[in-house]
Design a protein that fits this description.
Blueprint (H helix, E strand, L loop, with lengths): L2 H8 L8 H7 L9 H11 L3 E3 H4 E4 L17 E4 L4 E2 L2 E2 L5 E3 L1 H6 L4 E2 L4 E4 L7 E3 L7 E3 L3 E6 L4 H8 L2 H10 L1 E2 L3 E2 L2 H5 L2 E3 L3 H36 L16 H7 L9 H11 L5 E3 H4 E3 L10 E5 L4 E2 L4 E2 L2 E4 L9 E2 L5 E4 L8 E3 L7 E3 L3 E6 L5 H8 L2 H8 L12 H5 L2 E3 L3 H37 L2 H9 L1
Parallel strand pairs: 3-10, 17-24
Antiparallel strand pairs: 1-14, 2-11, 3-6, 4-5, 7-10, 8-9, 8-11, 12-13, 15-26, 16-25, 17-20, 18-19, 21-24, 22-23, 22-25
Helix pairs in contact: 6-9, 6-16, 9-16, 16-17
């Protein structure tokens, strides 16, 4: 039996490489030469390909920390950080802002329409494509900017979100105190080049995906606007007064002595809620708290924690883990239509609906989970709790400093405006349509990504057949 036959029989992950390959790569670690990486390189090189620097401008600069001066003013220039990038798009609600003077000073960091950002520090799989038709953006030095020259950016985006790119990232990253990707190695990433017809087909698919995502956002904002109009809150801003006089009885009632809890704006917000024309009720009377115990006798559990809610598009991602590895506090079973309200680090506003029937779904202690028990719609409550007026109010009940939390009872005791049922029905329909558009966007982008993977693993003909299926 030859050595090669023995390797095949035992299914060993062994690579045989030349000394020249080691010299060229400047790497001697065995992980770098895993078969999956070598096979990918062979597949790409068997077709037409280019190195990334040949078809794009790959730009990155070191920035002085003193330049990073943020301003809480959305009329200024958005500054994109790694934490703002989610699911290949940015969360516009979490952006920081910098002045126009600073933006112009940092002209090398400016982002134009159809530019792509890729993270090069820590979370190396993050990709952002600027489809917002805005040229006034600035970005962090933890990302590199790709500006295409000889290839359309939508096709490149499909490559970047595929396994083709991720495998190259996994191969080329360097582990120090945190994973990093050097610019020299990034510029040498291999990009498969298909025919212009195939690129155009992928381009069309990605553009339609982006349109559906924008439609989803538009429908959600329409629902929010309808709710704000109903509550007469379109232009409402809480008072900025910071002096409040309270007697000992009120202090004892809440068992709080911190000045932040008694800010005048909270009293004003509660009065605003109570003065709604159809009156108000407490959340505990409108919704039931889900306390259904997890008694699952299965080996694997679908688990959700706070970071699994995408705050830019309200999606919930679940992770399949072994039952024995579940945290001790993962004791509550989730079902379709449950509404999750984050109670840990509540300023993230992670509020989402379980939209699909998922077996063996369990949540962490980081949420208060609610179920409908009256005619009050979960979609209305979701949007209501994400309004600025409720964001402010929920922060009143923060406990702790380095790891702030809100108690379940504080969520259940929130005063809730009793919205007209006809308005609620309109809101619920807008939110459902928003979810449908979001799902369509994901499916189209996934199809574009898969087609590029088929092109590399097999050939362009099969990839075209898949696109047309």
């Amino acid at each position: 039996m030859t050595f090669q036959q023995y390797i095949k029989q035992k299914n060993l992950d062994i690579s045989i490489i030349s000394f020249e390959e080691i010299i060229w790569s400047s790497r001697i670690d065995s992980e770098y030469f895993q078969l999956k990486f070598i096979n990918l390189e062979k597949n790409i090189k068997s077709k037409e390909f280019s190195r990334l620097e040949s078809i794009t401008q790959v730009n990155w600069w070191k920035r002085l920390p003193k330049w990073e001066t943020f301003i809480d003013d959305k009329n200024w220039v958005p500054y994109v950080r790694i934490v703002d990038i989610q699911s290949n798009f940015i969360d516009e609600n979490s952006l920081e802002y910098i002045s126009y003077d600073l933006h112009n000073l940092l002209n090398r960091y400016q982002i134009k329409n159809r530019d792509i950002l890729v993270s090069i520090v820590w979370t190396l799989w993050l990709i952002w494509y600027n489809q917002l038709n805005l040229d006034k953006f600035n970005f962090t030095e933890n990302c590199a900017r790709l500006r295409t020259k000889l290839i359309n950016p939508e096709y490149l985006l499909a490559v970047l979100i595929s396994s083709i790119w991720q495998l190259q990232v996994d191969r080329e990253r360097v582990w120090t105190n945190q994973p990093k990707l050097s610019l020299d190695r990034l510029r040498n990433f291999l990009i498969p080049i298909s025919s212009s017809e195939f690129q155009k087909a992928v381009w069309d698919l990605v553009l339609e995906s982006l349109k559906q995502k924008e439609l989803s956002k538009k429908l959600y904002l329409e629902a929010e606007k309808l709710l704000l109009s109903e509550l007469w809150l379109e232009d409402y801003k809480p008072t900025e007064q910071n002096i409040s006089i309270k007697d000992s009885q009120e202090v004892e009632l809440f068992w709080r002595v911190d000045a932040e809890f008694f800010q005048p704006k909270y009293d004003e917000i509660i009065e605003k809620i109570k003065n709604y024309k159809w009156w108000y009720d407490f959340l505990r009377n409108l919704f039931k708290q889900n306390k259904e115990s997890n008694r699952l006798e299965v080996e694997k559990i679908n688990y959700i924690e706070i970071w699994d809610i995408n705050i830019s598009n309200w999606e919930i991602i679940h992770n399949e883990i072994e039952k024995d590895n579940l945290p001790a506090n993962a004791k509550i079973l989730l079902k379709k239509d449950d509404l999750l309200v984050s109670t840990v680090r509540p300023y993230r506003w992670a509020i989402a609906i379980v939209r699909n029937e998922i077996e063996n779904l369990v949540w962490s202690w980081a949420f208060t989970v609610l179920r409908e028990k009256t005619s009050y719609k979960k979609e209305t409550l979701q949007i209501l709790l994400k309004l600025n007026i409720y964001k402010e109010l929920m922060l009143r009940y923060n406990c702790g400093a380095s790891y702030p939390v809100i108690k379940d009872e504080d969520v259940l005791n929130l005063p809730i405006s009793k919205i007209d049922i006809k308005v609620q029905e309109k809101i619920a329909e807008l939110v459902k349509q928003s979810h449908i558009s979001l799902d369509s966007s994901k499916q189209l982008l996934e199809k574009a990504k898969k087609s590029v993977e088929i092109f590399i693993e097999k050939d362009e003909k099969e990839a075209e057949e898949f696109l047309n299926s």
